[in-house]
Amino acid sequence: MTPLRQQMIDAMRQRGFAERTQRSYLWAVRDLARFHRRSPAELGVPELEHYFRHLALERGLSGATCRLHRNGIRFLYLKVLQWSAFDVPFVVPKRAQRIPELLTRQEVVRILDACANPKHRMLLKICYACGLRVSEVVALRVRDIDGERGLLRVEQGKGAKDRLVPVSPTLLTELRRYWVLFRPTEWLFPAGRDRCTPLSISSAQRVFSRAKATAGIAKIGGIHGLRHAYATHQLEAGLPVHRLQRVLGHGHLQSTLRYLHWVPERRPEAGGPVDLVAGLAVRHG
């Protein structure tokens, strides 16, 4: 490991960056060094501008991927190499404004019904019933479930923030049945029989993809679609946007407001999150 790479790792750890962010930023810097065949410390603005043009024009990367590269490289030069500014021209493809295809409640039921494995079915059900990200649901521990207060603790979610998510009485009952059946000790969804490690994100994504295919649902989107469905169905039931923002763990209200595109006529009641599981007529129970 080069000293520069170690310095960057140390700088990211000091700031509490998530492991996935650290890997992405290191990958971006490594790609820059390979492109110019020189250490990033030896490069200047012209070389960086050339590299960013290469990403967009020659490699045809998406706007999101180009921005990821830029964020990692910008961090290196500002926080590690101590540049006073990062004034590098940066033009990326215009981001397409699309509304993902929303899963209806009936389609959620079909996906859950198509998942024969009880552990996997419970994982998908929590994703939908609590609006969790896939990274959050696989990281759940048994101790994160507060049955007395009806809350679920999301530890160090996106942005390195903890939050509490309401758990409906119906879901709590099903979680108790799940615990009796599988007796998880630490991780709520352990990988394999050793129970020492949690299920991986990619495994959870495959579980959803298989269930969706078995259910015959052709809508585009992965497991994150269950989180989208949670947000939209709660808005339809009258949950205020600012409360949904807290439950979803959004840092900015603008991220939550996008769900209003799916809800042209919201109910005006300012109640709490509704019990989405109670209305699901899932065959497996």
UniProtKB/TrEMBL annotation:
<dbReference type="Pfam" id="PF00589">
    <property type="entry name" value="Phage_integrase"/>
</dbReference>
<dbReference type="Pfam" id="PF13495">
    <property type="entry name" value="Phage_int_SAM_4"/>
</dbReference>
<dbReference type="InterPro" id="IPR010998">
    <property type="entry name" value="Integrase_recombinase_N"/>
</dbReference>
<dbReference type="InterPro" id="IPR050090">
    <property type="entry name" value="Tyrosine_recombinase_XerCD"/>
</dbReference>
<dbReference type="InterPro" id="IPR044068">
    <property type="entry name" value="CB"/>
</dbReference>
<keyword id="KW-0233">DNA recombination</keyword>
<keyword id="KW-0229">DNA integration</keyword>
<feature type="domain" description="Core-binding (CB)">
    <location>
        <begin position="1"/>
        <end position="81"/>
    </location>
</feature>
<dbReference type="InterPro" id="IPR004107">
    <property type="entry name" value="Integrase_SAM-like_N"/>
</dbReference>
<keyword id="KW-0238">DNA-binding</keyword>
<feature type="domain" description="Tyr recombinase">
    <location>
        <begin position="98"/>
        <end position="272"/>
    </location>
</feature>
<dbReference type="InterPro" id="IPR011010">
    <property type="entry name" value="DNA_brk_join_enz"/>
</dbReference>
<protein>
    <submittedName>
        <fullName>Phage integrase family protein</fullName>
    </submittedName>
</protein>
<dbReference type="GO" id="GO:0003677">
    <property type="term" value="F:DNA binding"/>
</dbReference>
<dbReference type="InterPro" id="IPR013762">
    <property type="entry name" value="Integrase-like_cat_sf"/>
</dbReference>
<dbReference type="InterPro" id="IPR002104">
    <property type="entry name" value="Integrase_catalytic"/>
</dbReference>
<dbReference type="GO" id="GO:0015074">
    <property type="term" value="P:DNA integration"/>
</dbReference>
<dbReference type="GO" id="GO:0006310">
    <property type="term" value="P:DNA recombination"/>
</dbReference>
